[in-house]
Design goal:
The complex is a heterodimer of chains A (110) and B (113).
Chain A: E1 4-7, E2 10-14, E3 19-25, E4 32-37, E5 43-49, E6 55-58, E7 61-66, E8 71-76, E9 85-92, E10 98-100, E11 104-109
Chain B: E1 5-7, E2 10-13, E3 19-24, E4 31-37, E5 44-50, E6 53-57, E7 65-68, E8 75-79, E9 88-95, E10 103-104, E11 108-112
Parallel strand pairs in B: 2-11
Antiparallel strand pairs in B: 1-3, 3-8, 4-5, 4-9, 5-6, 7-8, 9-10, 9-11
The chains are: A mainly beta (110), B mainly beta (113).
Chain lengths: 110, 113
């Protein structure tokens, strides 16, 4: 069964700084997802990464996938307050169902 | 299409009662997922359907939990003899066949008193 680990679990950043969130997974996963969740809200899809070396960018967020290392990263560039949220990564298990990490709670401070 | 719809949004029930939640996926999405999320945790996988077939069910799920998707469209999740530990947000998601991402509903927040 797929296990997904994220670190850090909590991240406090200054506005304008860069940082990376890491997502390790235990077994082969066909694809890797990144989601954002605001307090009291549901999950919003950010990225789907399908193959080794895949890189996707949207605004100040960039996600990458290294299937050999079983590692995905979410890089934050020049953080702004609006990015404060909890970020989850998820992989796909044998039957294509998604398994999530515990999440990284990001706080961006002025 | 307005996305994944879940009903009710909130449910308060007494311990020992049965509850049922409904999820209407995005039309033409053949995959449907149920997750449970408690405060400060990631979504915990409960079960997964492809069309009407239940392909996976978490070992963590006790026999008090059952889910159906009778016609491959909407799904229901029933919890029998609720316990206080069942209090959580229950999330439903759907996706199309292939490599597309899953879209989540707003969830049903269950409080067992």
């Amino acid at each position: 069964e797929l296990k997904v680990e994220q670190n850090p679990l909590f991240l406090s950043m200054q506005e304008g700084k860069n940082y990376t969130i890491y997502c390790n997974y235990s077994t082969t996963s066909d694809r890797l997802y990144w989601y954002r969740q605001d307090p009291g809200k549901s999950l919003e899809s950010l990225f789907v990464l399908l193959s080794n070396g895949a890189v996707k960018q949207e605004g100040r967020l960039m996600a990458s996938l290294d299937t050999k290392a079983r590692l995905s990263t979410l890089h934050i560039t020049a953080a702004v307050h609006d990015l404060s949220a909890t970020y989850f990564c998820a992989g796909t298990n044998n039957n294509n169902d998604m398994r999530f990490g515990a999440g990284t709670r990001l706080t961006v401070k002025p | 299409d307005t996305g994944v719809s879940q009903n009710p949004r909130h449910k308060i029930t007494k311990r020992g009662q049965n509850v049922t939640f409904r999820c209407d996926p995005i039309s033409e999405h053949n995959r449907l997922y149920w997750y449970r999320q408690t405060l400060g945790q990631g979504p915990e996988f409960l079960t997964y359907f492809q069309n009407e077939a239940q392909l996976e069910k978490s070992r963590l799920l006790s026999d008090r939990f059952s889910a159906e998707r009778p016609k491959g469209s909407f799904s229901t999740l029933e919890i029998q003899r609720t316990e206080q530990g069942d209090s959580a947000m229950y999330l439903c998601a759907s996706s199309a066949q292939g490599v597309s991402e899953a879209f989540f509903g707003q969830g049903t927040r269950l409080t067992v008193v």
